[in-house]
TrEMBL record:
GO cellular component: a single term: synaptic cleft
UniProt domain Cadherin: residue ranges: 87-167, 168-276, 277-391, 392-496, 496-618
Single GO MF annotation: cadherin binding
Organism for this UniProt entry: Mesitornis unicolor (brown roatelo)
Record field: transmembrane: 613-642
Membrane topology: Single-pass type I membrane protein
Name of protein: Cadherin-8
Keywords: Calcium, Cell adhesion, Cell membrane, Cleavage on pair of basic residues, Glycoprotein, Membrane, Metal-binding, Repeat, Signal, Transmembrane, Transmembrane helix
Subcellular localization: Cell membrane
Protein's UniProt keywords contain S-adenosyl-L-methionine: no
CDD domains per the UniProt record, alphabetical: Cadherin_repeat
Length: 709
């Protein structure tokens, strides 16, 4: 306790003692300290104004003071004395006048112009301004002439502890994981103090916790907040309100303090396993429920939050593991039980499952606390539903020969009612799948019969739908597709694949292949087609041609001799019999047309026209075309001549707006008497346009004839 009081006394009175020691010597001892150095920036001191000093020697520096100090926030009934200015040039006769200028001169600081005393007129705040730079000068009171050059000095404001610490960034928010060990870093706070951090302990801060213990602690000098208790559980308490205090003066009594709040939130870790709300669940479901439909939900609660509460569900045991499945609802974290396979009340009426919920994200630090999973039992009861008929087979494939008799039975379908009541079944054909009504079905026993003849070559497959309906409940209907394959029988004879026309060169050689022909058969035997070729019995000894069967089921036509001529015979017809290998075999006769043609020396066909009969003298085709062109040209000339001749014989017509009798024709020839009448045609004089013909008058028909040229 004595040490504490001593420290408080020193912190409080030290500034006053320093001020007293600093200021008073400058006031009362100035006359005895003639050689004291002026502050920086001052020039020479005041000089004595006697003529003797001006002549004999330079005067010494006249200002005598030290740096001045004034205590901030000091207030009293009268202005506070800061210091006194004095010069050795002052003989005490009051002829010297002291002048003060600079920061706050005349307002904050006032000088007595006679004594040089400086007083502070206002309360000063170091935090607003820490020092003032002033200029002092001594002048003659009568003439106002300076006795010495002006000199600067500084008045410093001495700090006192008048500012409390402040948390500029407060209030604070921080987070720390739950279940953290003691000493885990939480956050750091910072306070500031406007007082002088260099002088005294006014800005020396110490931190402490006012509220929030015993959960958290703070380091007094660094302000780092840490956990103070182990295993703090978020599920028990998630948020803590901590009050932090910062106190100056090193935390001693009398110091000022400031506070802030820190809201600390515990973040979640996966330290809790999922837990089912109940150990046994009961569900019921109709046997006709759709696949994938949900039948119930189970819930495993987890006290954790976020990803730490995510659980996955699985069926680990039970007699319905292949019938049911369980999925996780991402929004509610429920386990949804769904149907995987079709249920059947008549086969199995109940199921027992064991489901498990396990955390997805596990923290290894808490594995020792036990498995992060839980199990529950689920019992599912299947309820009976009126089901539609069930066919004995999911698909049917029937086969029938294309020559099957009408009303013959092709096959039979069967179905039954799976319900306990076992209703009778009636069968029918969906006529939308049998538009031609080629099949019938017995409504009682399901036998399918043929209604119209079949042809495999027209339609090899028939797909019909059989409808089974319960007689007691017509709404219970089942449908089943039935495929009917038409089997082949040998009912089509083979024939040439295309209409063949062979060409035989006049200069061909014996044994030369004229044409290779192939055959087709609409039937489809199991072992493939095999054709037999032959000539008609009456043409077996054909003197001109023969046939040869090839290994690829084709036929080659060969010439027996050479010397074929178009003049003798242009076209030959060769009938060929084609037979298949069916049972019974089918055959047909096809005729091959062989045309004799003129060929080049290398066997290329050039012409197959009947030129031998049209041009017996051996004219070529080009010559024949030239002759025909000349004949046509002559005919055209004759037609043109006749047309022009007919045009000239048409009668002349006198124009209405012109009368030839009004035309006067002048001749310079002398008259010849009667000879003139014979030399000229009088009609020409009347109508000059009628020189070459005779134009009659309009009213009469002239009987004069014109003279020929």
């Amino acid at each position: 306790m004595p040490e504490r009081l001593t420290e408080m006394f020193m912190d409080t009175w030290t500034p006053l003692i320093i001020l007293w020691i600093t200021v008073l010597p400058s006031i009362y001892m100035a006359p005895m300290n003639q050689s004291q150095v002026l502050p920086s920036g001052s020039s020479t001191g005041l000089k004595r104004l006697t003529e003797e000093q001006r002549v004999l020697n330079r005067s010494k520096r006249g200002w005598v003071w030290n740096q001045m100090f004034v205590l901030e926030e000091f207030s009293g009934p009268e202005p506070i004395l800061v210091g006194r200015l004095h010069t050795d040039l002052d003989p005490g006769s009051s002829k010297i006048k002291y002048i003060l200028s600079g920061d706050g001169a005349g307002t904050i600081f006032v000088i007595n112009d006679k004594t040089g005393d400086i007083h502070a007129m206002k309360r000063l705040d170091r935090e607003e301004k820490a020092e003032y730079t002033l200029t002092a000068q001594a002048v003659d009171r009568d003439t106002n002439k300076p006795l010495e050059p002006p000199s600067e000095f500084i008045i410093k404001v001495q700090d006192i502890n008048d500012n409390a610490p402040e948390f500029v960034d407060g209030p604070y928010h921080a987070m720390v994981p739950e279940m953290s060990v003691v000493g885990t870093f939480v956050t750091k706070v910072t306070a500031t103090d406007a007082d002088d951090p260099v002088y005294g302990n006014s800005a020396k801060l110490v931190y402490s916790i006012l509220e929030g213990q015993p959960y958290f602690s703070i380091e007094p000098h660094t302000a780092i907040i840490k956990t103070a208790l182990p295993n703090m559980d978020r599920e028990a308490k998630e948020e803590y309100f901590v009050v932090i205090q910062a106190k100056d003066m090193g935390g001693h009594m009398g110091g000022l303090s400031g506070t802030t709040t820190v809201t600390i939130t515990l973040t979640d870790v996966n330290d809790n396993p999922p837990k089912f709300a109940q150990s046994l669940y009961h569900f019921s479901v109709m046997e006709d429920v759709a696949l994938g439909a949900p039948i119930g939900r189970v819930k495993a609660n987890d006290l954790d939050i976020g990803e730490n509460a995510i659980s996955s569900y699985d069926i680990i045991e039970g007699d319905g593991m292949d019938i049911f499945q369980i999925t996780t609802d991402a929004q509610t974290q429920d386990g949804i039980i769904r149907v995987r396979k079709q249920l059947d009340f008549e086969t199995k009426k109940s199921y027992t499952l064991k489901v498990e919920a396990a955390n997805v994200h596990i923290d290894p630090r808490f594995m020792s606390g036990g498995p992060f999973k839980d199990t529950a039992t689920v019992k599912i009861v299947v309820e009976d539903a009126d089901e539609p008929p069930v066919f004995s087979s999911p698909t049917y494939l029937l086969e029938v020969h294309e020559n099957a008799a009408i009303n013959s039975v092709i096959g039979q379908v069967t179905a039954h009612d799976p319900d306990v009541s076992s209703s009778p079944i009636r069968f029918s054909i969906d006529r939308h799948t049998d538009l031609e009504r080629q099949f019938n079905i017995n409504a009682e026993d399901g036998k399918i019969t043929l209604a119209t003849p079949l042809d495999r070559e027209t339609n090899m497959w028939h797909n019909i739908t059989i409808v089974a309906t319960e007689t007691r409940n017509h709404s219970q209907v089942s449908r089943l597709p039935v495929a009917i394959k038409v089997l082949d029988v040998n009912d089509n004879a083979p024939e040439f694949a295309s209409e063949h026309e062979a060409f035989l060169c006049e200069n061909g050689k014996p044994g030369q292949v004229i044409q290779i022909v192939s055959a087709i058969d609409k039937d489809d035997p199991k072992n493939g087609h095999y054709f037999l070729y032959s000539l008609l019995p009456e043409m077996v000894n054909n003197p001109n041609f023969t046939i040869k069967k090839n290994e690829d089921n084709t036929l080659s036509i060969l010439a027996k001799h050479s010397g074929f001529s178009r003049q003798k015979q242009e076209v030959y017809l060769l009938p060929i019999i084609i037979s298949d290998s069916g049972n019974p075999p089918m055959s047909s006769t096809s005729t091959l047309t062989i045309r004799v043609c003129g060929c080049s020396s290398d066997g290329i066909v050039q012409s197959c026209n009947v030129e031998a009969y049209v041009l017996p003298i051996g004219l070529s085709m080009g010559a024949l075309i030239a002759i025909l062109a000349c004949i046509i040209l002559l005919l055209v000339i004759v037609v043109l001549f006749v047309t022009l001749r007919r045009h000239k014989n048409e009668p002349l017509i006198i124009k209405d707006d012109e009368d030839v009798r009004e035309n006067i024709i002048r001749y310079d020839d002398e008259g010849g008497g009667e000879e003139d009448t014979e030399a000229f045609d009088i009609a020409t004089l009347q109508n000059p346009d009628g020189i070459n013909g005779f134009l009659p008058r309009k009213d009469i028909k002239p009987d004069l004839q014109f003279m020929p040229r």
